[in-house]
Design goal:
12 helices, elongated, 18% strand, four-stranded antiparallel sheet, 11 strands, alpha+beta
Length: 398
Amino acid sequence: MLRHLLRLTWKRKSRNLMLSLEILLAFVIVFGIAAFGLRYWQLYRQPVGFDGTDTWSVQMQMGEAPPNSIAPDVYDTMRRSLLELPEVRAVTFASYAPYTRSTWTTTFASPQTGAAVQTNTIEAGDDLPEVLGMRLVAGRWFGAADDGQDARPAVVNRRVAAEMFPGRPALGQRYTSTDYGVTRTFRVIGIVDAFRNQGPLMVPTNFVLMRFTPHTTDSRVRTILLRVAPGTPRGFEAKLNERLKAVRNDWGYQIAPLQSLRASLLKEQLIPLAVAGVIASFMLVMVAFGLFGVLWQNTTRRIPEIGLRRAIGARAADIYRQIVLEQLLIGSLAMGVGLVLLVQLPLTGALGDTLNWSVFAGAVGLSMAVIYLLSLACSLYPGWRASRLDPAAALHYE
């Protein structure tokens, strides 16, 4: 049966060419959307490295004030004042809040390989793990024990530990960075599994968390992170703003729960996928109409052949099965060509880890299922119509 269908398909290769191209186009479109969605799902399931469920962010808005305009004592005053609120459990300061587009990138020199390692970084206070609910896989967090040390303490994620110190334990190792001619030395005191500050759809990257101490570091961060009591209502924002204004009335404060920032960022990140899905749906509908039209035309051209088969004893079910199986065979051949082309992407690594083998395999499986269902749906009515032809009428068809 299969050999016979292959022979018939080959004899009609010129007629089936347009049909095959439409199926190939649909396969590539569905594959792209499926790979996009599966990669997002893969990223979503990976740990982000922090909780942030009951954490709020406060962005200090200082207008045109220079970066070093915040006196060290202001941080201490703010921290004590906020901890007096019964809803506040812990307070820390950071370069930027999680679930924002903010990024601070620094290049560090690996002491082992001498290679430059580009890394996302953040400066944060000693209470960061308590505020964000973070956990270490090795070592400790920075704290008062690091005061007066000759190297600045840092907590790194596994990717940095593996890239900067390959084959060696990272704890206790030192590395350097040079900015504007000034060389700084850091010492690894802790390792986290991951830290993806831009949420569950962020691609895993190198990350270093550095200690911020207003009395000893030159930088002046402008973000406050607060761990509040579970169930704290959004109305707490007014009370929090009032307390901050009591410390510095000349500044503005942008307050938001991290869960609100997370929802907004996820919505923003998913918009491209939603737009692509809508466009792909319209294109698939157009492809379905094209497939149906070509199948209808091909079936009409084959009425004499169908009549002859019916006259020599073929059953209606045999004709129906032949039309449907021919369409599925054409779809399989078209998808085979598409698969040969698409497999070059993970083989060559053209898209990096974005299209890894698990994403590729899942996208291929989903795409093939969609195309088979589309081909089956488009061939059902032409096959039914062909199976209902009267043999005598078909043989006299002009």
